[in-house]
Amino acid sequence: MRSPAPSSATGPFGLDAASTATLLWGVCILALLFVGYLLIGSRDPMKARVRALNARREQLKAGTAAPPPSRAKLIDRDTMLNRMHAILDSLKMLQDEQVRAVQTKLLQAGIRSKEMAVAVIFGRLALPIVLGGLIALWVYGTDGFATWSPFSRNILVAGTLLLAYKAPDLALKNQITKRSQAIRKGLPDALDLLVICAEAGLTIDAAFMRVARELRRAYPELGDEFQLTSVELGFLTDRRQALENLAMRVDLDSVRGVVTTMIQTEKYGTPLASALRVLSAEFRNERMMRAEEKAARLPAIMTVPLILFILPTLFVVILGPAACSIKDTLATGQ
Fold first, then answer.
1. Among positive and negative, which fits the CA dihedral 227, 174, 106, 108?
2. How far apart are CA 130 and CA 164, in angstroms?
3. Which of 30, 41, 221, 227 is the most exposed place for a label (fewest CB within 10 A)?
4. Per residue in 159-207, pLDDT tens?
5. What is the pLDDT of residues 283-316, one digit of tens each?
6. What is the pLDDT of residues 31-58, one digit of tens each?
7. Secondary structure of the chain in the HEC alphabet?
8. How far is CA 55 from CA 43, 158, 250, in A?
């Protein structure tokens, strides 16, 4: 009687070992192709803008200039913002101090449109009503949370209302943090370039413009701020106000220190290059200290993964063969 053929081992989704390995290799190849596309296809973000400006210039020369394609979107956005402003104004929810605080946060997040402050304040009003109403209807109007206690359901609704109210501020804070970290990375290099420009005899506004042009590719956020500061230094009557605007737009103590130093050097006539050189060295030392602090915290952070994942694997690898040999010895002795 012929014995039945052994069934091949099947992996997840009913696939055998060969099919699973082929599928994994395919996924790896697709991931490599995607990464290669991202690396090769990354282009300068300014090229598209330069092409659009050149096309616009050619249209103006030919006398066939069409309205910009984004004009309708701008009109729709302004109409929506006007409606939000009318609703908030009717509810007496637009206070000058609140609007100025939101506008400052928008500038720190890199959003130049001050009208977006109305959208942020309107989001604080609309999101709790919409999301809170939906979650309340889901919790109290359906059987989706029938097994939950009344206290747990109330906590869920209250947490949703609080999170919906804080969502615009949390999004702004996250954007401000990312932008501040990007600016902090490029600040020592920017100060070194400012020192070179100052020693070359350039004025402050020309030095800011030159540094902005050099840092546009490596640190676009810092280059944008320096370019705007250069423009303000050129047309504002008070140069100190332009520097204070830079400190207001960037939520970093190091930038405030640079601005204070530049204001004092301009006021008392002290050499700007030497002061900026000292600040650049201090910022580099501070960045090195932050890296050393993260490296010092690494052993404490790795303790839990070491206990949960690495040590059990080592025990299995080291003690597994010994346990198997002891089992074979006991079975042979019996």
1. negative
2. 9
3. 41
4. 989 998 999 899 999 999 999 988 988 888 888 888 888 888 888 888 8
5. 888 888 888 888 888 888 888 888 888 888 888 8
6. 777 766 655 554 555 556 556 666 766 6
7. CCCCCCCCCECHHHCEHHHHHHHHHHHHHHHHHHHHHHHHHCCCHHHHHHHHHHHHHHHHHHCCCCCCCCHHHHHHHHHHHHHHHHHHHHCCCCCHHHHHHHHHHHHHCCCCCCCHHHHHHHHHHHHHHHHHHHHHHHHHHCCCCCCCCHHHHHHHHHHHHHHHHHHHHHHHHHHHHHHHHHHHHHHHHHHHHHHHHHHCCCCHHHHHHHHHHHHCCCCHHHHHHHHHHHHHHHHCCCHHHHHHHHHHHCCCHHHHHHHHHHHHHHHHCCCHHHHHHHHHHHHHHHHHHHHHHHHHHHHHHHHHHHHHHHHHHHHHHHHHHHHHHHHHHHHHHC
8. 19, 53, 34
